[in-house]
């Protein structure tokens, strides 16, 4: 394979006036720039959603607090959830996918670069639409009016009788628009992975990251579509006199739940599979061993993809389904633990017998493994339908899914940031600030979300803007709030690290981690067309083969 | 056992009724299995992190490159499958036992209707209508007398959750549900709406009073009486019946027959008002009628803006509704 790719200069933009630079970024169809745009955009929304979370936590610090009105509180949790899922985690994962997939499979760009740009700008428009609701709902009359129906927007709360004005419409349109962007990106990633691989890179030799993004994109195609359909039906209900979800007119509130969760549960896997992808690249490099059981990892991912589409109604155990349905969704939800467990064991198997280096990416990866294990086990508790009759809709569920999304996905994302930032910018992130970030975040995370499980077990329902004294919830909620602020401080350390290291970080060179996949063969940041000559690979770890010609991987595959 | 560790009236580890008990037994079984898995897997993780860390002098040596092992991977596929089978069988039994339990002929039937932001309780066989505070008889394990609730909603989705008596079940418009409980101890059990139902979801509180057979019979007898009429309250009754109050509230035997708000026929038999948001005292009643937002912002009770004289009269009338 070839490493002389860095002979193409990485577009020299110094010396240009800023209008030119802006114009380049706005009109770019380069997968790396679009990837960075996705990432920057989602970091911005991460800060916004973080502030919303802190408003929620300050309000719940003690019983009968009246810092904010119930109306404001309800908008905060709706916007926090919607923003985090659709405008932070989804775009940041698409950003990493955009950036990494073509580089890792030896391609010069995505299959459809213009469609790629279109997807990003649709997503960006979706986020702006959602936040314009603060003004556009009835905000021009001086009253903030963001959506307040919760991020599931259960019917019939979204009917015009219960949600007058336009706040729910902004929610609907934001998700509809960004949903089209996601579907297009899904198509793009699938086409890229299937058609753009460099010579020698058979499907069985692809980096696991590309495999996992392929499965994730398939899920996007299958599950965002029912969500989009449901949003259109909701608009028909609200403006064209339809009665899909209007229970007073013979419609079905339960129908919305099915539509929402047949999107909503696979969505969790859409979010976690890229986190698995990061783990499957980072854990081997810092354990100095190839991934344990590559074919089983691929099979487990595909299995998760399939099974994840048959578990949605475990979000509806309290809705009053038949005992047969409840049993069915119990067994499917439990079965998904098997391939997920295989993945955890394979990462452990990768570390086993290795030589583990505790650089920041690995610290976050170990955090991921520990927390994702717990998240999986509390998931089994909730898959047990009768147990879920107590746990569902309580703070236990809130703790569980934050364990998945923060303890799992966010930790994997931080690992990915520390791991690939050198490739994206040419500079290393500071290990010192990274260590501070890690420990502050771990402590804050556990203080917040460990304690939150207990409030749920003590009967505290979610989505309440205040609670009664004497329920045994006061002290616990104070601890949760303190933990949330620690996490906030950790995020500020992270942002500071991103900014400071961009200017003052140590130079990274092409391959700072002594890694094995193709993105490390090109310069940091990579040149505009990635590879001057398209590389040819003969194994899963092309750079290992090059560094160890006496013992190449290709001999064992 | 675990129940004593936390002082909370809504603790799922302190069950007082068969459904809550069966759920807890299953939950403890699941907790035990997941705890074992947690100890084993996190132990392996900790061991790997300590044992296989880079040591001084090792920096340049690559470890043995191992690609996988069919035997080990088969083992950690089969063992989880077996665990899942066991968990599923245990779970399916409890689902069936609780959900498909037949209703015995002596069971008490209650219809619970969720409203934005309060509970309506109707006892069809006893001819009683009340709100927010459910009264049910204690059930002697030797001669069970369970209560079967039919759950309906008048507007958005709600969820009935009293953790010490049963798991939660939603109240969904156009989708009747069923929930049963057979409390084995008398006392007041607390809960609240668990499904986000609108702006004031938080103060849709719930009280279940489990009464001994005698106390329950007395309560039923009192509730079945017509509304109390007292000459002292005639002025207040007149104000009540000539303002918008009667559009939403019912006082049996008078011209007030609204259905949007709680039935007030026996208002003074309840300990709280505004679905548990405030104690039922004359001061709170006065405040609630005049300025409901100060007790429960965004509740659907409008501020009545009565003159002081009329307000006093109406509160006096309310106090006679025993």
Q: What would the principal axes of the Cα set say about the shape of chain A? A: globular
Approximate shape of chain B: elongated
- Supply the number of helical segments of chain B: 7
- The oligomeric state is heterodimer
Beta content of chain B: 15-25%
Summarize model confidence as the mean pLDDT of chain B.
Answer: 94
Secondary-structure arrangement, i.e. CATH architecture of the largest domain in chain B: Sandwich
CATH fold title of the largest domain in chain B: Immunoglobulin-like
Order of H and E elements of chain A:
HHHHHHHHHHHHHHHH
Please report the distance between the alpha carbons of the first and last residues of chain A.
18 Å
Class by alpha and beta content of chain B? alpha+beta
Helical segment count of chain A: 16
Unreliable segments of 5+ consecutive residues of chain B: 1-5
Number of domains of chain B: 2
CATH homology group of chain A = Cytochrome c oxidase-like, subunit I domain
List strands and helices in order, with pairings.
The complex is a heterodimer of chains A (557) and B (322).
Chain A: H1 18-27, H2 31-59, H3 70-104, H4 113-136, H5 167-195, H6 208-239, H7 253-287, H8 294-307, H9 323-335, H10 337-351, H11 360-383, H12 385-391, H13 395-425, H14 431-457, H15 474-504, H16 542-547
Chain B: H1 18-51, H2 70-99, E1 108-115, E2 118-123, E3 128-131, E4 133-137, E5 147-153, E6 158-160, E7 169-171, E8 177-181, E9 187-192, E10 205-211, H3 213-223, H4 234-242, H5 245-248, E11 272-273, E12 278-279, H6 282-290, H7 308-320
Parallel strand pairs in B: 1-5, 4-10
Antiparallel strand pairs in B: 1-2, 2-3, 5-8, 6-7, 9-10, 11-12
Helix pairs in contact in B: 1-2, 4-7, 6-7
């Amino acid at each position: 394979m070839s490493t002389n790719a860095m002979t193409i200069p990485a577009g020299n933009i110094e010396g240009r006036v800023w209008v030119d630079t802006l114009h380049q970024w706005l009109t770019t169809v380069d997968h790396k720039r679009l990837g960075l745009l996705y990432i920057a955009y989602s970091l911005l929304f991460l800060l916004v959603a973080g502030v919303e979370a802190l408003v929620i936590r300050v309000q719940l610090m003690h019983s009968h607090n009246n810092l904010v009105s119930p109306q404001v509180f309800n908008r905060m949790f709706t916007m926090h959830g919607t923003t985090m899922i659709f405008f932070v985690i989804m775009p940041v994962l698409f950003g990493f996918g955009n950036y990494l997939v073509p580089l890792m499979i030896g391609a010069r760009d995505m299959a459809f670069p213009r469609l790629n740009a279109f997807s990003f700008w649709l997503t960006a428009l979706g986020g702006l639409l959602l936040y314009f609701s603060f003004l556009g709902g009835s905000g021009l009359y001086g009253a903030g009016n963001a959506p307040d129906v919760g991020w599931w927007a259960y019917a019939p709360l979204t009917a015009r009788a219960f949600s007058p004005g336009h706040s729910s419409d902004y929610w609907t349109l934001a998700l509809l628009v960004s949903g089209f962007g996601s579907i297009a990106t899904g198509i793009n990633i699938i086409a890229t992975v299937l058609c753009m691989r460099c010579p020698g890179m058979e499907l069985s030799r692809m980096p696991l990251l590309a495999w996992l993004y392929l499965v994730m994109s398939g899920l996007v195609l299958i599950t965002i579509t029912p969500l989009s359909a449901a949003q259109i039906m909701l608009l028909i209900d609200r403006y064209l006199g339809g009665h899909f979800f209007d229970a007073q007119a013979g419609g079905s509130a339960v129908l919305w739940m099915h539509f929402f969760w047949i999107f909503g549960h696979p969505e969790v896997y859409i979010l976690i599979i890229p986190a698995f992808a990061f783990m499957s690249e980072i854990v081997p490099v810092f354990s100095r061993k190839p991934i344990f059981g590559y074919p089983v990892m691929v099979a487990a991912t595909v299995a998760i993809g399939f099974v994840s589409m048959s578990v949605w109604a475990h979000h509806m155990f309290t809705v009053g389904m038949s005992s047969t349905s409840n049993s069915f969704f119990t067994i499917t939800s439990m079965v998904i633990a098997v391939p997920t467990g295989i993945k955890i064991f394979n990462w452990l198997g990768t570390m086993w017998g290795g030589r583990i280096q505790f650089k920041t990416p690995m610290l976050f990866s170990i955090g991921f493994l520990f927390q994702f294990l717990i998240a999986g086990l509390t998931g089994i508790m909730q898959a047990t339908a009768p147990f879920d009759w107590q746990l569902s809709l309580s703070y236990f569920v809130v703790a569980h899914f934050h364990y998945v999304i923060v303890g799992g996905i966010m930790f994997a994302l931080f690992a990915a940031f520390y791991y690939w930032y050198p490739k994206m910018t040419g500079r290393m992130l500071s290990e010192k600030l990274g260590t501070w970030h890690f420990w502050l975040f771990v402590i804050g995370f556990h203080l917040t979300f460990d304690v939150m499980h207990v409030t749920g077990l003590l009967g505290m329902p979610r989505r309440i803007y205040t609670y009664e004294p004497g329920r045994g919830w006061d002290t616990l909620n104070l601890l949760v709030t303190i933990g949330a602020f620690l996490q906030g401080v950790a995020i500020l350390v992270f942002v500071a690290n991103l900014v400071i290291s961009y200017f003052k970080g140590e130079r990274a060179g092409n391959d700072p981690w002594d890694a094995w996949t193709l993105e490390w063969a090109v310069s940091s940041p990579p040149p505009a067309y990635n590879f001057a000559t398209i590389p040819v690979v003969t194994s899963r770890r092309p750079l290992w083969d090059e560094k160890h010609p006496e013992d190449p991987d290709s001999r064992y595959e | 056992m675990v129940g004593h560790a936390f002082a909370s009236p809504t603790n799922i580890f302190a069950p007082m009724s068969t459904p809550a008990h069966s759920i807890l037994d299953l939950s403890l079984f699941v907790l035990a299995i997941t705890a074992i898995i947690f100890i084993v897997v996190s132990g392996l993780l900790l061991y790997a992190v300590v044992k296989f860390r880079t040591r001084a002098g090792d920096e340049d040596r690559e470890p043995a490159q191992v690609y996988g092992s069919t035997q080990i991977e088969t083992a950690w596929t089969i063992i989880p499958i077996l665990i899942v089978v066991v968990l599923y069988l245990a779970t399916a039994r409890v689902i069936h036992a609780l959900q498909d339990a037949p209703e015995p002929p002596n069971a008490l039937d209650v219809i619970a209707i969720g409203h934005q932001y309060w509970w309506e309780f109707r006892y069809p066989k006893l001819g009683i209508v009340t709100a927010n505070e459910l009264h049910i008889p204690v059930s002697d394990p030797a001669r069970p007398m369970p209560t079967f609730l039919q759950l309906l909603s008048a507007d958005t989705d709600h969820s009935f959750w009293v953790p010490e008596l049963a798991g939660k079940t939603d109240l969904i418009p156009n989708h009747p549900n069923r929930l049963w409980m057979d409390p084995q101890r008398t006392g007041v059990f607390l809960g609240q709406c668990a499904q986000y139902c609108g702006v004031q979801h938080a103060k849709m509180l719930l009280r279940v009073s489990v009464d001994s057979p005698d106390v329950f019979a007395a309560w039923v007898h009192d509730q079945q009486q017509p509304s109390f009429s007292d000459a002292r309250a005639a002025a207040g009754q007149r104000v009540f019946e000539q303002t918008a109050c009667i559009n939403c509230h019912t006082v049996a035997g008078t011209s007030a027959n609204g259905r949007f708000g709680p039935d007030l026929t026996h208002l003074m038999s309840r300990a709280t008002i505004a679905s548990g948001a405030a104690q039922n005292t004359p001061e709170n009643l006065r405040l609630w009628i005049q300025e409901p937002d100060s007790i429960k912002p965004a509740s659907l009770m409008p501020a009545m803006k009565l003159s002081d004289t009329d307000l006093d009269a109406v509160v006096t009338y309310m106090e006679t509704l025993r």
